[in-house]
Amino acid sequence: MTDLPEKFLERLKRLFEPKTLEDVLKAMQTKPLPSFRTNTLKITTDVLEEALKRQNFDIEQVSWYKDAFILKNKSVRELTETEAYKQGQIYIQNLSSMIPSLVLDPKPDEQILDLCAAPGSKTTQIAALMQNQGEIIANDLSRQRLYKLTANLTMYGVTNTTTLNLPGQTLWKKYPEYFDKTLVDVPCTMEGRIRFDDPDTYKDWKLGKIKELAPKQQYLLRSAISATKPGGLIVYSTCTLAPEENEGVIDWILKKEGDAIQVEKIQIKNLDLKEGLTKWNKTFHPQTSLTSRIFPSQQMEGFFIAKIRKIKSTYSTIRFPFIPICR
Q1: Residue 113 pLDDT > 70, yes or no?
Q2: Does 157 share its domain with 11?
Q3: Spatial separation of the C-alpha atoms in residues 302 and 39, rounded to whole Å
Q4: How far apart are the first and last CA of the chain?
């Protein structure tokens, strides 16, 4: 039925109850429905919705995010041929990917860090939520990806953002406890995007990649916390299912930072979020249960999100080595 790696399938059987596993495997065999959001820096959602419906696009507004839509009757290519897309009024993005920015809840007068920003889906969304006010620092280590980020910022009319090309795990040294809020959407194994009919989504999957990425994700998260003010908010997210990259990273940071940080439960009206794991090969810190998982479905990619409040300064405790990140 599938050429998915056997070890990956074995891990799915451990991750999910039989009925949930059946639903997840079905989703991985089903063509996903395209989704997009309004770029409110250029157009209102009501005006965009009316314009697309006049062009016979069957779109369904998402119950938990008024600026997001599911495209039901046409292709992404047809959407990109519209004048609205060409004018930067539409950002095509999976629904799951929109959630971390909503959890971050940026305000117009805040300083925001997007630590691993390229190609800019979340940066442009954050800018729209801030109404192009305040300050965003959008960082990415890859120069090639940074070009795409810069192009997207221009296309979508973002003017409150400065881009940087620095190793994310040392950026805190340039901005110690500077930001009100930080998004750290880390490089990951992308298991939440795997589809049976697309070998490119799983051809590079291997256990070794998980083991390689997890320490890098830990240091990126610790840098994000170090760059955030006491009282500030850090949102950690991945598009993978692997506990080592998700709850395992949160378990690690909770043990490193102790009572300086606290995981907060994520609540978004009308959105079904699953509770984070408390065990995987070992028992995790109890607060990992407050993290959130999104299971793969026809509408949404698999995702993991943790909302972390910085309770007090960590500046004097930060002493960790440089680890190069390849993205």
Answers
A1: yes
A2: yes
A3: 24
A4: 32
DSSP code, position 285: P
What's the domain count of the chain?
Answer: 2
pLDDT digits (tens, 9 = 90+) for 77-88: 999 999 999 999
Write the CB contacts of 181 (distance below 8 Å, at least 6 apart in sequence): 104, 105, 106, 110, 112, 113, 228, 232, 233, 234, 235
What is the C-alpha to C-alpha distance for residues 197 and 29, in angstroms, rounded to an integer?
7
Q: Tell me the torsion sign for CA atoms 191, 195, 196, 198.
A: negative
Please give the positions annotated as active site.
239
CA distances in angstroms from 85 to 117, 124, 254, 258, listed in the order given: 21, 14, 42, 46
User: Domain with 84 in it: what CATH number?
Assistant: 3.30.70.1170
Q: Residues 138, 70: one domain?
A: no
* Residues 110, 16 share a domain: yes
The range of the structural domain enclosing residue 79 comes to 33-93
Strands (E), 167-266: 179-185, 228-238, 261-264
- Please identify, among 93, 121, 144, the residue that sits at the C-terminal boundary of a domain: 93
Q: Are 310 and 234 in contact (CB under 8 A)?
A: yes
pLDDT tens figures, 132-149: 999 999 999 999 999 999
- How far is it, in rounded angstroms, from Cα 217 to Cα 29? 29
CB atoms inside a 10 Å sphere around CB 107: 14
Q: CA–CA separation, 191 vs 205, rounded Å?
A: 8
**317, pLDDT greater than 80:** no
